[in-house]
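I am still getting used to backbone structure tokens and would like to learn alongside you. Label the sequence line and the structure token line clearly, so we can match residues to local backbone shapes. Go ahead whenever you are ready, and we will take it from there:
>
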Amino acid sequence: MYNTPLHRDEIMSYLSDIIGISYAVPVNKKAYRYDINNEQSFYIKSVTQAPEGKHPIVIHDIIGDELKRNPIPDVMIGELQASSAYQKFRIVKKNTNEPAGYEVDVLNTKALSNLLNRLGVNTLLHNGNITTDIERDLLQINAESSTERNAIIAARIGQGRFRESLMKKWDSSCAITGLSIPALLKASHIKPWKISTNLERLDVENGLLLSANLDAAFDAYLIAFSDDGKILLPDDTLSLELKKVLGINGNEKLRKIPSSRQRIYLKQHRTNSGIK
């Protein structure tokens, strides 16, 4: 647990473990919107809006008022903040024409889980008594500076410098299909984040920009890639089902030939997957 409020990247990393980062919609480069249902949303400020990680969460004013009446331990409700990014909030702040919500800080993941439950997100097993994978991952980070640590946390959820580098390398398109809708693209590590060094976690050659379904299949070792970039599938009937689900024919290749360093990562991935 942390003695200071969680930073935005720690929160987004935890959110990705619960509801999936693909549900985050970037708005005006100012915030990411998480839609709980058709009527309820909350926002996480972008790094430019919360450069020091302060007050990263913004919630609807009605929920904020309710939390003031019935507080959650280690959840701190701040001031109303107006922004054009908060499109799903009603206009409430005086002297502005922009929607506003309450800024929120949380001290630990238990408090975050309780806040999410109050917002209507079912966090299931995240009850504060279980050490989640993401908490263990964050605790294992050994960085020399907070800047490096934040960059590594961002890489854990496929964001920040790591994602930007992959977007540039792959022309903001899926490395396989060429899909160019940013919200549907995932920055995936080839060598799993957990067993990578800090340098490998930030190494663009240890990454692929993939559409969400291909990213999930790659992480689950259901697909792999040869040294020349050809897609590889399990040598059984599952591959037929995979082709249908993933919308591929099995003859696809990476749109760019893997570099010598990337081939090392791809070889290790093939070994882990058992796909030849």
User: Anything to note?
Assistant: Residues 161-273 form one domain. Residues 17 and 224 are 23 Å apart (CA to CA).
